[in-house]
Each structure stands twice: as C-alpha cells, then as structure tokens.
C-alpha cells in the first residue's frame, strides 16, 4: 500500500459506519417516506433515463448496425450478462427500491433493483413486452425478467441460464403457482396481479 492510504481507508470505513448508524436510526421514517405500493412499481422501470438509454445504445452499438429483428435476442443476453456480472447483489439495511440509474451508478442493488434495471434496458433496446415477474410464497421469493420475442417467451433469472418457452401459459405452468402464492408483474406502463 502507498503511504497514507491506510489512514484514508480507515477514515472511509469509519465514515461509512457513521452513515450506516444514521440510516439505522431513521430507518422507519425513511422506509415510510420511500414506500411504494405495488401498483406504483412501474415508476421503477425507466427505459428513457439517461444512464439506461446510454447503456442500451452501447449494447446496440456492439452489433455495428443494430437490427431489432436479427440482433435483439443476442443483445438481450448481453444486457442480462451486464447486470449479472457488473451489478453486485446487495441487501440494503432498509427496504428501499433503487431507480435503475442509481443501480448503475453504484453498481449495487438487490434482486428487484437488478431486475428493474434489466427490464429497463430491454425496453430501451426496443422490446416493450419486457416485464419484471415476482413470485412469492411464504418466505420464498423469485424475481426475474421476461420478454416476448418472435412469439416465444424468454425468462432471465439471476443464478440460472435464460430459458425459452413456447407460450406464456407454459412459462406459468412451469412455476407451479398455487393459491398460497402472490404473483405479479410490471413494466413501465402497468402492474398486473397474475395470481
């Protein structure tokens, strides 16, 4: 290490500890002020935000001439890889949803934050069918992004390989949804209760 770096690092650790202490003290107030109802979740999908649009263009530019019909599927896999590999999964000390620009700026986010970023990127690259899908049953929760392309459904779930389904019904059937589950999906325009 360079001389003086230990002191700077120690200061940064102490400063981060102080920030965490302050946040923890006001946790209930912050969570109440930041609360979004599930019906307001579409506000989290921001395909036209500056950083999302810039990243979507960067991915599309990697194809030379980007053609939605011939390039989108491969571009969607590149967007998924970017979020999977470049955005670190982080559980926050309080329940708060980040906007995609914040997730990209800090390169951190929880499972919902990472999926709202991915969904925003897919819409920005030309696929308005992209949605974030949330399945909860008891303490278990699954969150993934899916889109329709050329009459097929493609799911992208962190920790798994992307999956292809011939129909939405087959995708839903694979999840074995029962009456005890809470299932919803959302994009930048709407929130829908699935079950």
What's the end-to-end separation, in Å?
55 Å
Give me the secondary-structure category. alpha+beta
- The total number of structural domains is 2
Runs in which pLDDT lies below 50 for 5 or more consecutive residues are none
Number of helices: 7
Average predicted local confidence, pLDDT: 88
Largest sheet: 6 strands, antiparallel
The overall strand count is 8
Strand content: 15-25%
Percent range for helical residues? 40-55%
Spatial order of strands in the largest sheet = 6-5-4-3-7-8
- Using the coordinates shown, work out and report the CATH topology of the largest domain: C8orf32 fold
Order of helices and strands: HHHHEHEHEEEEHEE
What attributes characterize this protein structure?
2 domains; 7 helices; 195 residues; C8orf32 fold; 6-stranded antiparallel β-sheet; two-stranded parallel ribbon
């Amino acid at each position: 290490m360079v001389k003086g770096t230990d002191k700077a690092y120690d200061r940064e650790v102490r400063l981060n500890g102080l920030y965490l202490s302050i946040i923890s003290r006001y946790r209930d107030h912050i969570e109440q002020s930041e609360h979004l109802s599930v019906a307001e979740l579409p506000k989290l999908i921001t395909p036209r935000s500056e950083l999302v649009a810039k990243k979507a263009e960067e991915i599309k530019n990697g194809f030379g001439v980007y053609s939605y019909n011939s390039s989108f599927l491969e571009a969607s896999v590149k967007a998924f890889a970017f979020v999977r590999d470049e955005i670190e999964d982080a559980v926050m000390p309080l329940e708060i949803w980040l906007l995609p620009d914040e997730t990209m700026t800090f390169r951190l986010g929880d499972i919902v934050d990472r999926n709202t970023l991915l969904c925003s990127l897919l819409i920005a690259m030309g696929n308005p069918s992209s949605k974030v899908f949330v399945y909860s049953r008891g303490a278990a929760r699954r969150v993934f992004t899916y889109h329709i392309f050329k009459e097929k459904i493609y799911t992208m779930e962190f920790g798994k390989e992307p999956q292809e389904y011939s129909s939405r019904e087959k995708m839903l059937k694979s999840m074995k949804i029962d009456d005890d589950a809470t299932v919803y999906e959302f994009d930048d325009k709407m929130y829908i209760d699935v079950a």
